[in-house]
Amino acid sequence: MNVILFGVQGSGKGTQAKILSEKTGLKHVTTGDLFRENIENKTELGKKVLEFIEKGDLVPDKYVLEIVQDALDNLSTGFILDGFPRNPSQGEFLLKKYNIDKVVLLELTDDVSVKRLMARRLCKDCKTDYNMLYKLPKKEGICDLCGGEVIQRKDDNETAIKLRLDKFHNETEQVIKVFADKGIVCRVNADQEIGAIQKEILENLGV
Ligand code: AMP
Questions:
Q1: Band of pLDDT at residue 18, cut at 50, 70 and 90
Q2: Rounded distance, CA 87 to CA 48, Å?
Q3: Could you please report the per-residue DSSP string of 4-58?
Q4: Rounded Cα gap, residues 116 and 96, in angstroms
Q5: For residues 199 and 126, what is the distance between their CA atoms, to the nearest angstrom?
Q6: Is the whole-model pTM more than 0.90?
Q7: In the predicted structure, residue 184 carries a pLDDT above the cut 90
Q8: Does the annotation count 153 as an active-site position?
Q9: In terms of Cα–Cα distance, which of 171, 176, 196 is closest to 186?
Q10: How far apart are the C-alpha atoms of 37 and 49, rounded to whole Å?
Q11: Catalytic residue among 36, 86, 102, 121
Q12: What are the residues facing 105 on neighbouring strands?
């Protein structure tokens, strides 16, 4: 089975995709993490995409499509896409090359999205998520799991968040409509506990 998770930033796509991947064995493919790994490792690609990511702008398709194709080709399992496709041309590329069985849209208002993202933190080393509103590390600034430094993403600032929301409403929603017209989109309220959201996703996917 091949699945896409859509939702505004902060709707919990990454968290839900990770749990879903552990439960189903489907491969979690997230373009944002792939780009951040490249930035950390100072690769050529990382240097090219850095400025777009820090502003909250979309990375040009030529870099995105390459990274997605690398991640999806030669997979021996199905996949869960998180962060891709984000505009109509990425949607077309995906539909030409791969079969998509189900699409989950995690629904959240922009106000809640902004509040969650401003409070979002992550461990610099093991990438564990924290949130200053509801999931604080036990020791301020230190990861509970690995002792790494807990930091804020550079693009989790108000200007970049607004631009990302704008891109979601103006570009990503057009792609979601294409899948909705195929009748394969299920909508889940993302303003609930993590476990309740996961339960609804599993029910909708029939797994
Ligand atoms: P995310 O972790 O999904 O919020 O992605 C972080 C940033 O990576 C985005 O704000 C974009 O700059 C870039 N990015 C991730 N996925 C894509 C994509 N499919 N198309 C264009 N840019 C992307």
A1: very high
A2: 20
A3: EEEE-TTSSHHHHHHHHHHHH-PEEEEHHHHHHHHHHTT-HHHHHHHHHHHHTPP
A4: 35
A5: 26
A6: yes
A7: yes
A8: yes
A9: 176
A10: 11
A11: 86
A12: 6, 187
What is the average pLDDT across 20-33? 96
Measure 73 CA to ligand 1 centroid, in angstroms.
Answer: 20
pLDDT of residue 38: 95
Q: Say which of 18, 127, 153, 187 is annotated catalytic.
A: 153
* Residue recorded with tokens 């509970």: 144
Residue nearest to atom 5 of ligand 1 (CA): 32
Position in ligand 1 atom list of the atom nearest CA 68: 19
Q: Is 121 a catalytic residue?
A: no
pLDDT at 74 over 90: no
CA–CA dist 6, 187 (Å, integer)? 10
Q: Which two tokens stand for residue 156?
A: 């989790």
- Helix, strand, coil share (%) of the chain residues, nearest 5: 50, 20, 35
Pairing type for strands 102-107 and 3-7 reads parallel
Q: Which residues contact 194 (CB under 8 A, 6 or more apart)?
A: 12, 15, 16, 19
Residues 6+ apart with CB under 8 A from 166: none
Whether 134 has a pLDDT exceeding 90, the answer reads: no
Q: How confident is the model at residue 136 (pLDDT cuts 50, 70, 90)?
A: very high
3 pLDDT band, cuts 50/70/90, is very high
